[in-house]
Amino acid sequence: MAIHILGIRHHGPGSARNVKDFLEQVKPDIVLVEGPPEADSILQWAAHKELVPPVAILCYQPDDPQQSCFYPFAEFSPEWQAILYAKQQHIHIRFMDLPAASQFAIEAEKRKEADHTVKPENPIDTSNDGVDKVISSLALMNKDILYKSATPLKPGQPFKSQAHKKFNSSADTDESITDPVAFPFDPIAHLAHAAGYAEGEKWWEHMFEHRNNNEAVFDAVNEAMQALREGLPQKNDRLEQLREAHMRKVIRQAEKEMFQNIAVICGAWHAPALTNMPKQKDDNELLKGLPKVKVECTWIPWTYNRLSFFSGYGAGIVSPGWYHHIWQHPADDGTLWMAKVASLFRKKQMDTSVAHVIEAVRLANALAALRNLSKPGLEELNEATLSILCNGEPMMMSLVQEELIVSNRIGEVPAEIPKPPLQLDIEKQQKKLRLPPTADFKDYTLDLRKENDLERSVFLHRLLLLEIKWGAKYEVGGKGTFKEQWRLQWDPAFSIDIIEKGSWGNTVEEAAAKYTANRAAETNTLPAVCGLLQQTIPAELPTAIQSLIEQINNLAAASGDVMQLMEALPGLVSITRYGNVRKTDAALVMEIVTGMITRICVSLPAACTAVDEDAALHLLQLFEQMNGAVGVLQQPDITISWQQTLQIIASGKNTSAVIAGYSTRLLADHKLMEGEALVTQFYYAMSTATAPAIAAAWLEGFLKGSGTILLIDNNLWDVVNQWVEQLEEEIFMQVLPLLRRTFSNFSKPERRKLGEKVKHGGSTGTTKQVVAGIDETRANKGIAIVMQLMGYKTN
Amino acid sequence: MSTILRQHAEQQFAQELEELKKQDGDQRPANWLMSPRSVVTYLVGGQLKNGFEITPKYIGNKRLMEIAVATLTTDRALLLYGLPGTAKSWVSEHLAAAISGDSTLIVQGTAGTGEEAIRYGWNYARLLAEGPTEKALVETPVMRAMKDGKIARIEELTRIGADVQDALITILSEKSLPIPELNTEVQSVRGFNIIATANNRDKGVNDLSSALKRRFNTVILPVPDSMEEEIDIVRRRVESFEKVMELPAEPPALQEIRRIVTIFRELRSGVTTDGKTKIKVPSGSLSTAEAISVVNNGLSMAAYFGDGQLKAYDLAAGIIGAIIKDPVQDKMVWQEYLETVVKPREDWKDIYRACRDLGA
């Protein structure tokens, strides 16, 4: 009987190759892999031809989906190769890590403990989020495949990894205060320094990943780690000990089941702990009575971007795209890679000749020779690319970084894998509507007049309501309301959102409706509910709309605040107009709108009295919107009641002057106050007895907007002009400052035009329309290219 | 000590080159004096197996030097690109010295550089007397380098007119130089290559045609990364200057160099070292090379007009001269810097007073 411990680096193509070769050579009858035992049952899918890495095993707590973790696998992950081997050879394979059920439970306990122990008066401690989160770069060797999603405690950063954080037991609280910089956590760095390398990762790569001969490499790793574990201060980390104890337990179990040839794949750091087995009793003692929670597992597609350092995870690999390349083409001397770079540049309209590629490969090889490397690595290739293909300009390198070194590869998961029903429904719809999830963003312009596009839009709006932010909606240029512009970018972390929202329903439609209805019930300000309604209408959720409308009705009835009603109104009115394109039942909304306008008309006159200047100006804006909204509705009875309200306000003695002036203007616009009546009203408001400030405010309201109205509307012009002309000199002197105050708000050209109009006797003030001659749609197209040229990402 | 004002790199560092050659065990490209790895060691410094210390010539990223040397082993030419004063010519001189043992095959590019300065010229007296013959031909440094398999250097490549630049294309791609007048050609011997320098701050330069660009690998030399690196550069260069000039002044205290470097770095980056105050940036490039010359200048002042000790007063004139390139704009920038940054610094009082006294 033999036990082979293979210490590896997670996501190392060299390790993966070594593991594969080793397994083929040794032919074990069982393979044990570091991973959550709960996922054993879904391992049967690994050999499925539709399961394409990068994929991840997602473990989550069904009653608290945010409590979850990912175990990602790329094609070049040693674990993945081990799993594939086992499946192909039809031998047993098991995960041997501490069950996620216990890990979740232990962490939950820790958090509780941390909450109790952390005193709020110590700001440094709280910023570290307590005892259990001291950063440890051990992660790389240790648990970097274990990405932990956030705790509900930190809603701001929902998917921050905790994997690289050290979980101290409560016993060694003191250690957490140790400065993480002063205490080098990365054990590999010790070996790397000894070998004269600056970084641990680079050393590992040269020592173990880039080798072509793999004889005894696992023994070497094992010995190196053994030396490290002896030399470095042992960390008294309970979780760590539990994990290793459980791994040993699984190995013993396999022995007991009479497997003859056991292969164990684990992070290199754990290798010595599994080789030198302590007494079985000790381990059992440790593992006794561990807390547990309910955990479920499934496969989800993953992306290379998520595997990389740059997406917010503390642990990961810098260059998944490059690893993929060397996994696929282990013998490449840079030629294939450079060809890929060149074709990428060509695709982006940058001239790259074959001669460039030849020279770049030569330079990379020359550099490798200079540095005593057997073949060029990513650094040499990048330097050659920069020097030859980019003429030394680093800007273009960012393109290579994004597209090739990290790459946008996204995994696939077969449809028949047991998944949360909501996830299934989303996938079904994605397929049906031909909206495939992609790792890089893709733009869609939807024409809502088409059946499929309308359905797509409804689907995307529903996801937005569920707070699954796959698509972002953009303003679209051009005429008509039937077009929508969307940008879609899939993120594997949406799986969590989907599971979380799964409690609201089994289909997107059901979940969105229930979730929205729930939000409606919880919201208690009118504008917020109206905003929600505006989002819900395009998602076509009649039940949700019904409850939103009820909520609006309730709130509107209870609200004594006219301003709130007026703020909400324009949005609702635009919905009634929108309804035409979307075939939604606008009548429902119409009912509320009528109700609300009636309410507004009743209480508005009172609201316009005794308000201070700031409030009056705010009200003035609402007036403008309100007037516009009434105009849009084009319902005679509404218009009439609105006009009657205006009459009352305009003639009200106590109405705020600005508003009275504006109401008068609106009435004049509606042709309800003309000729003598208007003149009378105007003269009355501007009489000398009125305090200058009030008169000025009235005039400001009357001429609201701009001086242009005076220029164009000859009726208004006549009223003002005649009034000024008939003023006696003495009174004119008195009102002059007041006029000046109003007119000084107009723009300069307007004032000049007004002056000219007075000069010409005020008969004809022709205004010319200036045509800029810019086609905005065409100009917009150019902007993206210019931004790209400048090296900005266009979003 | 010889009476030569400035010695070539291969003369000044003859011993280092000799030791490197002796120790060199790696393979050498044809006509190279030493292996590429030794060339890199010569540039960035280090200790040889027998304990001999090689002084660093280029202080900065070793990888850049590796790219430069690796380029010269391929058949592409090397273009060193960067701001004025980032050691482009310095690196090119030392590369040529280490590879060919000869850094003198140099063409200075100007707007008036003609084709005859790059390909070949004629001795007109002979040409008239004897007609076109080999003897009437005047060889250029480039032609000589081709014949001998050495490195030719072209300074300020982009200042040369575009038509003249393109004369290099045949030389770099066919590795030969036709002489139609004599119906012959010069074919380059192995080991020949060209190192060109160009700066990216100048206006009115001639961009390389893409045909020519394709024949060069570009290495951009950056301004020093860190304060410490820059201080190190200035200190080393000033020390070697002292040796050459035999100045009686005492070597400058690190403190003094640190202050100069701080002033230059702050003005160059437009922000104070602590990152708290924004500063206007003057029009000059304020390179490390200029910082070196300011210290050298100050040393001379101290030696001949002062008491032999480098004081703030000796440095002030040099600082002002280096920073104020535009009499109106830069003067304002400098005064603002002086009043807002220099003045409040407790131990900078002497510099402040010295600069104020000079009336700038």
Q: What does this molecule look like?
A:
The complex is a heterodimer of chains A (795) and B (360). Chain A is of the alpha/beta class. Chain A is 55% helix and 8% strand. In chain A, the strands form 4 sheets. A 4-stranded parallel sheet of chain A has the order 1-9-2-5, with helices on both faces. In chain A, strands 7-4-3-10 form a 4-stranded antiparallel sheet, with helices on both faces. In chain A, a hairpin with an 8-residue loop joins strand 12 and strand 13. In chain A, helix 6 (187-194) packs across helix 7 and helix 21 (508-522) runs parallel beside helix 23 (542-558). The relative contact order of chain A is 0.07. The model of chain A is unreliable at 118-185 and 764-768 (pLDDT under 50). Chain B has 360 residues and is an alpha/beta fold. Chain B folds into 2 domains: 9-221, Rossmann fold (3-Layer(aba) Sandwich); 227-357. Helices cover 47% and strands 12% of the residues of chain B. Chain B contains 17 helices and 11 strands. Chain B has helices spanning 9-12, 14-23, 36-44, 62-73, 88-100, 115-118, 124-130, 141-148, 162-165, 167-173, 210-213, 227-245, 254-269, 288-304, 312-323, 329-342, 349-357; strands at 46-47, 53-54, 77-82, 106-108, 120-122, 137-139, 151-155, 176-179, 184-187, 193-199, 216-221. In chain B, a hairpin with a 4-residue loop joins strand 8 and strand 9. The longest helix of chain B has 19 residues, at 227-245. Classes of the chains: A alpha/beta (795), B alpha/beta (360). Chain A binds chain B through residues 351, 353, 355-356, 359, 362-363, 366-367, 369-371, 379, 383-384, 387-388, 391-392, and chain B through 36-37, 40, 63, 66-67, 69-71, 73-74, 76, 79, 81, 210, 213-214, 217-220.
